[in-house]
């Protein structure tokens, strides 16, 4: 018998690595999750940058679209589909009989999607720089958009599994939140900072757009809606939605397709 | 033999050192449906315990509670001295579980599945040993999705017994297997017991319980109808004899057991087999009645199982 026993972290990495290997083996899944977002993100950068309006404003819009595209398609939808598929085939249940903790099973199952999303963001940064994008004037809101956006999309993915009985149905059940997040993140940056339309920032995903815009145009802590610092409603929205989705997922998440 | 009620025990009995599993008044509910209705269960260390019952009897639900996956609305549960609902983390390294179905990543090969399991399970073991033990060496490079049903069950069992855990829980380990594969699975289960491990299994097959189990419990509609050692259960049930009587036999003799007569076929179920059979044979001799197909036997597990089901349907 072998005597080596792995640490909890190495167990999570082992399962996560297996998930990545499986993704790479499936050519269709690999193309749709690895290359499609890059193709779309590059497309945004090329086409939007050709218009009459240039400068930091247009790059804020481009970066916001890239972020929200990766977070919604690459993280939110992928996590929903992956978790439902693994639940359907009882792989989640099997993994719970290993030495992995429940949190470890979930991190390993969803971690690759998050890691791929981060790689996409790095590639967007390279593409945008090559096409002449300015460096953000304030990286703090951009970091908040990335961290908060990931948190909202990961937890939203788990919540959507509650109402998704099969992987096929995930294509339907993820649509409402996908469109809401995508549209809100697109609209909020083009609304005036002190306009009441800024209340849209309370919609999940919208702060990704707002915070990205502030990163490129500045004014993160300047007075905005209700005289509050401009970034604050967005940050609060991300925190509250993450908390709400986490609470819902903790209460209703199902490991087993039976019940 | 014990008869349980739907009421949970007021005072749970303390688990003694000999008990691998001790359950008192377990109740599980899904919405409005009472899946398990207040059962008591004791499994001793080193024994093979079989949970029998029809589909929907509550067997898998009970196992899920023991494994720490199912939540209960009432009762107490101790598995290796641990409440699985409170401290599953402490139980995980000491328990191996075979699921009723699925649980495989279909795209992985048999070898990859076991190699991944090696990295995920704290108990040390080697894929090669399990491949050999469960006769999967020749199929090591085959994707799980291409395995036969029997091969999948063997791989499933290999993962459950990985590292020889103290307690092994098997949910219908031989369902869908051919007789030869079933026999080999029984051998593997008996090996676990010989190594001092405790095994809890569910099954639809009465012969499996008879071949393997030290003690059994028969579940029906969320309750344990009968439990104990096979010998004790059978001894507590009425034995029976049957015969075909020749034409013109007339009225049958008075016996203490229950008599069923269909045409010329007579069947008697009795707790006094010797006395009633003597009376019956004396009656036949006195009247010159010829008895063909005469058979006498103790109650079988099948009789008891059938009795549990029909008894419930009649109530």
UniProtKB/TrEMBL annotation, chain A:
The keyword Transmembrane applies. InterPro entries: ABC-2_transporter, ABC2_TM. It is found in: Membrane. GO terms for cellular component: membrane. The chain crosses the membrane at residues 29-46, 58-79, 100-127, 139-163, 175-197, 230-249. Keywords: Membrane, Transmembrane, Transmembrane helix. GO terms for molecular function: ABC-type transporter activity. The keyword ATP-binding does not apply. Residues 67-249 form the ABC-2 type transporter transmembrane domain. It is a multi-pass membrane protein. Its main location: membrane. This is Transport permease protein. It comes from Pseudonocardia hydrocarbonoxydans. The lineage of its organism: Bacteria, Bacillati, Actinomycetota, Actinomycetes, Pseudonocardiales.
Automatic annotation (TrEMBL), chain B:
It is found in: Cell membrane. One of its GO terms (cellular component) is plasma membrane. Residues 21-246 form the ABC transporter domain. It is a peripheral membrane protein. Signal peptide: none annotated. CDD domains: ABC_DR_subfamily_A. This is Multidrug ABC transporter ATP-binding protein. It comes from Pseudonocardia hydrocarbonoxydans.
């Amino acid at each position: 018998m072998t005597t080596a026993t792995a640490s909890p972290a190495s167990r999570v990495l082992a399962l996560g690595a297996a998930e990545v290997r499986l993704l790479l083996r499936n050519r269709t899944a690999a193309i749709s999750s690895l290359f499609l977002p890059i193709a779309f993100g590059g497309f945004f950068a090329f086409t939007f940058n050709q218009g009459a309006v240039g400068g930091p404003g247009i790059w804020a819009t481009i970066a916001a679209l890239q972020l929200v595209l990766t977070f919604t398609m690459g993280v939110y939808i992928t996590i929903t589909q992956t978790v439902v598929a693994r639940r359907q085939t009882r792989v989640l249940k099997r993994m719970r009989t290993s030495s992995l903790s429940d949190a470890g099973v979930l991190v390993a199952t969803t971690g690759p999607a998050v890691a791929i999303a981060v790689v996409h963001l790095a590639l967007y940064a390279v593409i945008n720089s090559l096409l002449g994008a300015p460096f953000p004037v304030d990286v703090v809101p951009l970091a908040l958009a990335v961290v908060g956006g990931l948190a909202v999309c990961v937890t939203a993915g788990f919540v959507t599994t509650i109402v998704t009985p099969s992987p096929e149905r995930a294509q339907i059940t993820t649509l409402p939140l996908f469109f809401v997040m995508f549209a809100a993140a697109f609209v909020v940056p083009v609304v005036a900072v002190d306009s009441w339309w800024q209340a849209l920032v309370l919609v999940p995903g919208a702060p990704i757009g707002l915070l990205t815009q502030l990163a490129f145009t500045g004014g993160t802590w300047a007075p905005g809606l209700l005289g509050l610092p401009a970034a604050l409603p967005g940050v609060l929205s991300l925190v509250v939605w993450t908390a709400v989705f986490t609470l819902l997922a903790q209460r209703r998440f199902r490991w087993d397709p039976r019940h | 033999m014990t008869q349980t009620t739907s009421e949970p025990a007021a005072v749970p009995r303390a688990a003694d050192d000999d008990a691998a599993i001790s359950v008192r008044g377990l109740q599980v509910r899904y919405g409005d449906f009472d899946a398990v209705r207040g059962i008591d269960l004791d499994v001793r260390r080193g024994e093979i315990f079989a949970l029998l019952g029809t589909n929907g009897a509550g067997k898998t639900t009970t196992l899920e509670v023991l494994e720490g996956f199912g939540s209960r609305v009432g009762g107490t549960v101790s598995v290796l001295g641990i409440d699985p609902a409170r401290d599953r983390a402490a139980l995980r390294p000491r328990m191996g579980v075979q699921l009723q179905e699925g649980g495989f990543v279909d795209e992985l090969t048999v070898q990859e599945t076991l190699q991944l399991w090696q990295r995920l399970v704290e108990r040390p073991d080697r894929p090669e040993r399990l491949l050999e033990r469960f006769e999967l060496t020749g199929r090591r490079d085959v994707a799980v999705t291409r395995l036969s049903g029997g091969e999948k069950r063997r791989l499933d069992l290999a993962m459950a017994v990985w590292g020889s855990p103290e307690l092994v829980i098997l949910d219908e380990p031989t369902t869908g297997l051919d007789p030869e594969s079933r026999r080999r699975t029984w051998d593997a289960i008996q090996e676990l017991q010989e190594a001092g491990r405790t095994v809890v299994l569910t099954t639809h097959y009465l012969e499996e319980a008879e071949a393997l189990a030290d003690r059994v419990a028969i579940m029906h509609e969320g309750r344990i109808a009968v439990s104990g050692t096979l010998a004790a259960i059978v001894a507590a049930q009425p034995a029976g004899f049957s015969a075909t009587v020749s034409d013109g036999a007339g009225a049958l003799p008075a016996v203490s057991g229950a008599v069923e007569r269909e045409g010329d076929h007579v069947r008697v179920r009795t707790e006094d087999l010797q006395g009633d059979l003597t009376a019956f044979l004396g009656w036949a001799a006195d009247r010159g009645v010829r008895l063909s197909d005469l058979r006498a036997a103790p109650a079988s597990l099948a009789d008891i199982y059938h009795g549990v089901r029909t008894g419930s349907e009649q109530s």
